[in-house]
Amino acid sequence: MTLPRIPHVVAGARRDGQSDRLSPVFDPSTGAIASQVPLANAADIEMVIADAAAAAPAWGQRSAQDRSRVMFRWRELCMAHADELARLISSEHGKVVSDARGELQRGLEVVEFATGIPHLMKGEFSDGVSRGIDMYSMRQPLGVTAAITPFNFPAMVPLWMLGPALACGNAVVLKPSERDPSTAVRLAELFVEAGGPPGVFNVLQGDADAVNALCTDPRVQAVSFVGSTPIARHVYETSARHGKRVQAMGGAKNHLVVLPDADLDMTVESLMGAAYGSAGERCMAISVAVVVGDATADALVARLADRVRALRVGDPRVDGNDMGPLVTAVHRDRIAGYIGAGVSEGASLVVDGRTHPATAESGFFLGGTLFDHVTANMSIYREEIFGPVLCVVRVQSAEEALTLCNEHQYGNGVAIFTRNGGAAREFAHRVQCGMVGINVPIPVPLAFYSFGGWKESAFGDHNQHGMDGVRFYTRTKTVTTRWPSGGADAASFSMPVLR
Ligand code: NAD
After folding, report:
1. Taking 80 as the threshold, does the pLDDT of residue 32 lie above it?
2. pTM greater than 0.85 (yes/no)
3. Burial class of residue 483 (count of CB atoms within 10 Å of its CB; 0-12, 13-18, 19+)
4. Which residue lies with its CA nearest to atom 15 of ligand 1?
5. What is the fold of 8-250+457-478?
6. Please, which residues have CB within 8 angstroms of residue 51's CB and are 6 or more apart in sequence?
7. Span 254-438: which CATH code?
8. Ligand 1 pocket test: which of 209, 239, 283 has the largest number of ligand atoms within 8 Å of its C-beta?
9. Domain boundaries defined on the chain
10. Ligand 1 mean position to 137 CA, how many Å?
11. What's the pLDDT score for residue 310?
12. What distance in angstroms lies between residue 148's CA and the mean position of ligand 1's atoms?
């Protein structure tokens, strides 16, 4: 049987490209190869970038209002196709369909924000900065930009970048993850159906070769990346060395601190969703619960253990399942390896996901796992596992909990659960993390704020979306004007100063 081949999208049309390198795309629920994606070669990369470079100027010269109308229609079309898109995401990623709908919704909120671009791109004007002289600034698009995205949000993360980049008047080459590449194709097709000019949003399927070309090609002005920390650092350094504007988001190890006065019901419910939703394959998933005091920890672990054992793990397309499979067998085995390492390092394995009944099926399943008595020197604490594994660390004070968060290499999201407003305020102020939740486990900023971590979780000066997105995808030009009014000032050989 010939497997379907997922295309690139160039000039508004599907293209196979010339590369004979192909990568399998799995149905994680069955373990079967569902399709193949081409891994672009040099000729394919040239075709995609050249087409985007040809399309960029005319799009950038359209009025911001005109572009906004295209964005609005695109958002409407994506909403009309939400069910199809959510099922497509689920079929290649393995997350439950309701979760896929949620990520699409959150991504489209960035497009909604971007429809306000005529207002968001406005410059500044100063009347009469000196005698007869006015000064104004404007924001202009960059040209061709690259969006390089991870497997875990095949719609939301591309939309974080596409929303502001396109609305600001840039062309975008999207290089999606080769593990779930189909959603990008449909998003690009819907953009053209919405009236977006062909070539303004192209999709380049590929691996490291495509990424490295985007980071070095002189026609690409800016690179936005989301993925693991080692690749984020590589993309940041390579793109910067080639004179590009770059933002590169990396991995995470998000802590949720539980103070003894926390509402335990609320904490348990929040931890379950935040640790095991999307099988833990979220950069904002909670993977560490830092619990202050043994009495609180004993009560919390007992409640969590029952809930983790009861997780419904199975086909993500079946209503009622909490968790689907992991994205690939390799990723599932890597997580299982971490569970083994946690046991050898001396953590208490309270619930072992490797023995869940779903693991007997052919898909890439693993049950939820819960560790207690995890310490800061263990690999399951230090490293990002990116799976359904929650580590409980016991500490004796809120100060000790804060120190743990601050000393961790990652600083993406963090949460504190407490009824004490003063303690929460102090924590939010002093914690070294980009996004903080107070009795909110996954504090993902809405589209009109910006998303970004600190420390090893992000490289570059700009966050994703919000006004940072507009700043990232435009450059400022400042114009100083004077009009002849008869008679000229004598030549001045000193630095001009205001008069
Ligand atoms: P990944 O780093 O393996 O892949 C991300 C992108 O980089 C993909 O498009 C991939 O094709 C490309 N890539 C992979 N290896 C490369 C190489 N050697 N050279 C150049 N490019 C390469 O990440 P992933 O496994 O797809 O996604 C999961 C990771 O993304 C986790 O670490 C997660 O925390 C992180 N993530 C972070 C955020 C955030 O906003 N901070 C959001 C989502 C995911």
Report:
1. yes
2. yes
3. exposed
4. 208
5. Aldehyde Dehydrogenase; Chain A, domain 1 (3.40.605)
6. 10, 11, 199, 202
7. 3.40.309.10
8. 283
9. 8-250+457-478, 254-438
10. 36
11. 97
12. 8
